[in-house]
């Protein structure tokens, strides 16, 4: 307990003193995870909505696969991206391994199925209510998918958050493709893992606190936005 | 509704001819061999007991359902990618999470109306249903009656040649019902053919020029409204009229 208390005290001093190492790691974490969620949203939302409003053979299988991919193990994704980007891999010539870009790619792969599968569910539920009306107006399936995404925009915030939580919280993928290089690819989770194993508990604890706070603040903000807008738009 | 949309120069959509139309689900015939011609002009009211197939018949005509057998033939068939020339108002209107005005503008965009004309047409439609003061209000927080009027305004802006209404006042109070009926009469006066399903016989009397009586998926009777309510020809219709409360 005393170790924890001591470490927590030092962690607070690091945070309060705006330790440059701490800030660098935090900013890189945010940059990587935001970029990954942005890419995953750009792919996942249209994909989820398209699956929700279309009917084709094999659709059921696709839905099952999408849902299963939500549980993709980060280390497996890390390994696959590593193989793709390593010197001998098909994309090796791009020299992306051990860069933040590689980490963004890996996290985007992790988050895309989450956003696609959850938005598929939300859009499909709404499609039952909207289908006749939109078809009556002469809307195409593609148009209906976009209309539904926009109409459900407040519910989709929660899905983005689920994706961000997944990205910001995972270690397995970023540590493999990023390499946890100090000042280059070290993010909050990989730093926490490393510092803990080295015994530098204050830094690890400080980072852990920041990570928790970020996730908490984002969720609280999103919840307020969602409540306000829902009350306004019904 | 005076300036004519492009569709008016096309050959007329009506008459609509249904020949031996059957619609069955799981072997049960919900529509059981209906042959019917809908001409432009008169306001047609479809009545009948629950489960007679009234709503399904509207959906078949509107193209939301495909018949199991039989044919539905338009004088001028609608083109797949062209704007629709017929519209439908449902019992519960489905409105988008945006303002009343942009709900109408959305429908106009889908119908291929140029952006420059949308705002004026949407405002005019809102005025005609008495909702112009609520144009900027989010559609989903309007009252039930206002939502249904907005659904009618959306249809008004589209200027359809034919309008199907599926019990549009079923969940509304008398005041809101009266407003809706006023709009329906105005739409008809502006040249839109009205085909409406209702459970409210008072409403059928007020709005109907002719009545189609449906029973167990079949058309048992079709008559001018006055005669239908005074002297129904089929025993089922007589029984139906007697069993219904008079308001």
Give the key terms.
heterodimer, A: about 230 residues, mainly alpha, MetI-like fold, globular, B: about 250 residues, alpha/beta, 6-stranded mixed sheet, 3-stranded antiparallel sheet, about 25% strand
Average pLDDT number of chain A: 93
Give the overall form of chain A.
globular
The first-to-last residue Cα distance of chain A is: 49 Å
What is the largest interface, and how many residues per chain? A-B, 19 and 21 residues
Number of domains of chain A: 1
Q: Radius of gyration of chain A over alpha carbons? A: 21 Å
Helical segment tally of chain A? 10
> Structural class of chain A, please?
mainly alpha
Quaternary structure classification: heterodimer
What general form of chain B does the structure show? globular
- The CATH topology of chain A comes to MetI-like fold
**Unreliable segments of 5+ consecutive residues of chain A:** none
CATH architecture of chain A: Orthogonal Bundle
- In DSSP terms (H or I, runs of 4 or more residues), the helix count of chain B works out at 8
**How many strand units of chain B?**
9
> Which segments of chain B are poorly predicted (pLDDT under 50) over 5 or more consecutive residues?
none
Give the amount of beta strand of chain A, in percent.
under 5%
Could you describe the 3D structure shown?
- The complex is a heterodimer of chains A (234) and B (247).
- With 234 residues, chain A is mostly helical.
- Chain A has a single domain (27-200), classed as MetI-like fold (Orthogonal Bundle).
- Chain A has 10 helices and no strands.
- Chain A has helices spanning 2-16, 20-53, 59-69, 74-85, 100-137, 141-151, 153-169, 172-178, 188-198, 201-233.
- Chain A starts with a helix and ends with a helix.
- In chain A, 40% of the residues are buried.
- The model of chain A has no long low-confidence stretch (mean pLDDT 93).
- Chain B has helices at 54-62, 100-110, 115-128, 144-158, 174-189, 201-207, 225-230, 235-243; strands spanning 16-25, 28-38, 44-47, 69-74, 86-89, 162-166, 193-197, 210-215, 218-224.
- In chain B, 43% of the residues are buried.
- Chain B contains 8 helices and 9 strands.
- In chain B, helix 2 (100-110) crosses helix 3 and helix 2 packs parallel to helix 4.
- The longest helix of chain B is centred in the C-terminal third of the chain and has 16 residues, at 174-189.
- Chain B is α/β, with parallel strands linked by helices.
- In chain B, the strands form 2 sheets. A 6-stranded mixed β-sheet of chain B has the order 5-6-7-3-8-9, with helices on both faces. Chain B has a 3-stranded antiparallel β-sheet with strand order 2-1-4, covered by helices on one side.
- Helix content of chain B is 35%, strand content 23%.
- At the A-B interface, helix 5 and helix 6 of A face helix 2 of B.
């Amino acid at each position: 307990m005393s170790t924890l208390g001591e470490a927590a005290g030092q962690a607070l001093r690091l945070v309060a003193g705006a330790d440059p190492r701490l800030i660098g790691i935090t900013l890189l974490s945010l940059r990587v995870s935001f970029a990954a969620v942005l890419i995953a949203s750009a792919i996942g939302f249209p994909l989820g909505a398209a699956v929700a409003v279309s009917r084709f053979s094999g659709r059921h299988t696709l839905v099952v696969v999408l849902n299963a991919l939500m549980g993709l193990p980060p280390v497996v994704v890390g390994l696959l991206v590593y193989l793709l980007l390593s010197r001998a891999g098909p994309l090796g010539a791009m020299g992306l391994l051990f860069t933040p870009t590689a980490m963004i790619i890996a996290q985007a792969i992790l988050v895309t199925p989450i956003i696609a599968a959850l938005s598929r569910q939300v859009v499909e539920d709404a499609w039952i209510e909207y289908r006749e009306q939109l078809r009556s107006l002469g809307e195409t399936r593609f148009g209906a998918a976009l209309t539904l995404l926009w109409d459900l925009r407040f519910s989709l915030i929660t899905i983005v958050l689920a994706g961000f939580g997944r990205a910001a919280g995972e270690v397995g993928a970023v540590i493999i493709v990023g390499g946890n290089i100090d000042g280059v690819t070290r993010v909050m989770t990989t730093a926490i893992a490393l510092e803990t194993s080295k015994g530098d508990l204050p830094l690890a604890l400080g980072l852990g606190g920041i990570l928790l706070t970020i996730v908490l603040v984002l969720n609280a903000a999103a919840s307020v936005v969602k409540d306000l807008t829902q009350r306004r738009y019904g | 509704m005076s300036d004519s949309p492009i569709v008016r120069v096309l050959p007329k959509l009506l008459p609509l001819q249904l020949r031996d139309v059957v619609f069955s689900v799981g072997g049960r015939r919900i529509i059981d061999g209906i042959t019917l011609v809908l001409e432009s002009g008169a306001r047609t009211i479809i009545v009948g007991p629950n489960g007679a197939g009234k709503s399904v018949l509207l959906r078949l005509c509107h193209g939301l359902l495909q018949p199991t057998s039989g044919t539905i033939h338009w004088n001028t068939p609608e083109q797949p990618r062209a704007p629709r020339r017929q519209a439908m108002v449902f019992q519960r209107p489905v409105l988008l999470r945006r303002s009343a005005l942009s709900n109408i503008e959305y429908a106009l965009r889908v119908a291929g109306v140029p952006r420059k004309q949308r705002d004026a047409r949407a405002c005019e439609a809102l005025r005609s249903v008495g909702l112009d003061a609520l144009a900027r209000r989010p559609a989903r927080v309007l009252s039930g009656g206002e939502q249904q009027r907005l659904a009618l305004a959306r249809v008004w802006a589209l200027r359809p040649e034919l309008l199907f209404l599926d019990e549009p006042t079923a969940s509304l109070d008398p005041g809101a019902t009266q407003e809706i009926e006023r709009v329906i009469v105005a739409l008809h006066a502006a040249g839109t053919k009205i085909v409406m399903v209702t459970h409210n016989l008072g409403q059928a009397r007020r709005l109907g020029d002719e009545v189609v009586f449906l029973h167990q998926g079949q058309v048992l009777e079709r008559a001018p409204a006055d005669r239908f309510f005074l002297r129904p020809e089929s025993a089922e219709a007589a029984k139906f009229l007697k069993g219904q409360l008079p308001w």
